[in-house]
Amino acid sequence: MNNIAIKIENLSKSFGQGDSKVTVIDGASFSLKKGEFVSLVAPSGAGKTTLLMMLGCVLEPSSGKITIGDEVVYDNKWKVKDDRELRRKKIGFIFQAHYLIPFLNIEENIKLLPYENGESEKVVGKRVDSIMDYLDMKDKMKSMPSQLSGGQNQRIAIARALANEPDIILADEPTAALDKQRAISVVKMLKKITREQNVTIVMVTHDDSLLPYCDKVLSIEDKKINIKVNAKV
Ligand SMILES: Nc1ncnc2c1ncn2[C@@H]1O[C@H](COP(=O)(O)OP(=O)(O)OP(=O)(O)O)[C@@H](O)[C@H]1O
Ligand SMILES: [Mg+2]
């Protein structure tokens, strides 16, 4: 069985053209295994969000190859018929701000995407129940986002990403709005999810104290990607 969740080969991204052309990522190659918990660190403006959005097939690379599971999704051009469907089914996103829809309650926010994917109420209901149980948020199903704290809403954003049973979760500074203790508890939760659900998580963070929880640390230096493998934690 192929144990690779995502593989990129010689991936590059530039913005602009001619004199104003800026290369952000220059020939990145690495692969991430299923169930790996990976952090992505680099100074502001170094290209973390750019890389994450390419991994999530949201942003088109300038060149290179992206393979998700055993499907080549990009090889100097998009290879999938429907990149939106690919994103919807295989990839979950968590952002710095939770982006919950303010006029839907928590349950509706979480179930929106699975329903959009045509899944049945029964299947989604069961799955979301167990996710909310797991995140200790079951009593908040009928609350509105405005009634929850920042940390609670961030957990709901995690629940929403999981509700779709993605293979890969891409998280852009998911703990930035949280205090230290809550940040660590969210990170421990993400790690547990990778272990128990075999999901690969790539998390952008500026907080070095969170790095020991990760299996690998990717960093962007001078448009190149470095990989550090942490000792088993
Ligand atoms: N759509 C775009 N058009 C032109 N330049 C862009 C675009 N998106 C990003 N850039 C440039 O690419 C570089 C990397 O941006 P990116 O958002 O990936 O940085 P980052 O590492 O996520 O930074 P931060 O930590 O501040 O979020 C920056 O110089 C940015 O100005
Ligand atoms: Mg960014």
List the keywords.
alpha/beta, Rossmann fold, 4-stranded antiparallel beta sheet, 10 strands, 31% helix, 28% strand, binds adenosine-5'-triphosphate, binds magnesium ion
Q: How does this structure look, described?
A:
The chain is an alpha/beta fold. The two termini are 25 Å apart. The model has no long low-confidence stretch (mean pLDDT 92). The chain binds adenosine-5'-triphosphate and magnesium ion. Magnesium ion binds next to α1.
Q: Count the strands? A: 10
Please tell me how large the radius of gyration is: 18 Å
Structurally, the number of domains stands at: 1
Mean pLDDT equals 92
Helix and strand run: EEEHEEHEHHHEHEEE
Helical fraction: 25-40%
Bound molecules: adenosine-5'-triphosphate, magnesium ion
Main sheet attributes: strand count, strand direction, barrel closure:
6 strands, mixed
